[in-house]
Design a protein that fits this description.
The protein is of the alpha+beta class. The protein is built from 13 helices and 7 strands. The longest helix has 18 residues, at 3-20. It binds a DNA duplex through residues 41-53, 84-90, 93, 120-126, 129, 141, 143-146, 184-185, 188, 191-192, 197-199, 257-260, 294-298, 333-335.
DNA sequence: AACGCGTGGGT
DNA sequence: TACCCAAGCGT
């Protein structure tokens, strides 16, 4: 590509962005971006769509308008507010990052890429995005959108992730000295609205004349990606244990790993062979009809729900009784909200069900 | 370096 | 329907 052409690219994109850029809650129209808003939105947007993030972002900003209030909040409150958004390590890291910024940086997010990179939950993409959007530093923010747009612009046939180093260099060379933040956001808007994964709308693209993917007629097929393998199905049980006063037993999951720190309906392991083991309390369990199905990133899950009622019992380790009307406010991930909905549909409160073939303490 | 880590919407 | 995918990070 000639120098003249490559120099024209940022200007064309910025002009397009000025006219057609999206209006999003974390973009301050005509005002200087707020680093806290930029950081919060970027963490939420990791592997997550704008549509999914919008309500969560507004809720967080209302509940914790600045990083000090977020840092002072109990982690469980943050997990409750994050529940349903997925990738819960982000919520734990968000809270840890807020505390680190307050304790080590006087409550202001650092400006340099290197310092940002040291903070929990901030990797190369997010550090670049914050540096560029919040502080207008000339850093690229290379996410999935940018990888797609630039793969097409240069008709890169090397599949991802092998092409990442090349794409990163292309992105770096494209960043303009001025308006680096707008440029980063413009590139993502272009990918989200025009240079979409399927059926890109090349007719209205500001880069259509320079796009080799379009010229070669392969834009819609790029970027190439290495094949991903199939995911297994795992099975398990969940124990819906209600108490006579209208409360249900919930359990806190271990702090790390899948759904770390979140609440759950107590259950068995999730394995490819239906597991055997002990229920959390001795009771008469009955199997509810149907299954709860859910798909995680790396496996499908089928949960069979067993229900029982007790008069009273001391909660087992990591468990506590929660009034059923308060369950919705708990830090329950989506899979567990499905379990709760399934159980509540089948088990009317205060009408204890007799076990048909009681098995005590075992399922 | 490859894998674990959620969810809901689009096609 | 059964994929595919989205502003990635931590280990």
């Amino acid at each position: 590509m000639t120098p003249a052409l490559s120099e024209a690219l940022p200007g064309k994109l910025l002009a397009w962005y000025d006219a057609y850029g999206r209006d999003l809650p974390w973009r301050m129209k005509g005002k200087k971006p707020d680093p806290y808003s930029v950081w919060l939105s970027e963490i939420m947007l990791q592997q997550t769509t704008v549509a999914a993030v919008r309500d969560y972002y507004n809720k967080f900003i209302s509940q914790w308008p600045n990083i000090e209030t977020l840092a002072a909040a109990p982690l469980d409150d943050v997990l409750k507010a994050w529940a349903g958004l997925g990738y819960y390590a982000r919520a734990r890291n968000l809270h840890a990052c807020a505390k680190a910024v307050v304790e080590q940086h006087g409550g202001s997010l650092p400006r340099s890429f290197e310092e940002l990179l040291k903070l929990p939950g901030i990797g190369p993409y997010t550090a670049g995005a914050i540096a560029a959007i919040a502080y207008d530093a000339p850093h690229p923010a290379v996410d999935g959108n940018v990888e797609r747009v630039l793969s097409r612009l240069h008709a890169i046939e090397t599949p991802l992730p092998d092409s990442k180093p090349l794409i990163r260099k292309i992105a770096q060379d494209l960043v303009p000295e001025k308006r680096a933040g707008d440029f980063a956001q413009a590139l993502m808007d272009l990918g989200a609205t025009i240079c979409t994964p399927k059926s890109p709308n090349c007719l209205i693209c500001p880069w259509t004349d320079q796009c080799r993917g379009r010229i070669f007629g392969v834009a819609g097929t790029l970027p190439r990606k290495s094949a991903k393998k199939a995911i297994p199905t795992r099975k398990g049980y969940a124990f819906w244990l209600t108490r006579n006063d209208g409360s249900v037993l919930l359990r806190r999951r271990p702090e790390k790993g899948l759904l770390g720190g979140m609440m759950e309906v107590p259950g068995s392991e999730w394995t490819e062979k239906l597991p055997e083991g002990d229920a959390p309390l001795i009771a008469s369990w009955r199997k509810l009809p149907g299954k709860v199905e859910h798909t995680f990133t790396h496996f499908h899950l089928e949960i069979t729900v067993l229900a029982a009622t007790v008069v009273d019992a001391k909660p087992p380790p990591y468990c506590r009784w929660v009034a059923v009307q308060d369950v919705d406010a708990e830090a329950l991930p989506s899979v567990m909200r499905k379990v709760v909905a399934h159980a509540r549909k089948m088990v009317p409160l205060r009408h204890p069900v007799q076990g048909r073939s009681p098995r005590h303490g075992t399922y």
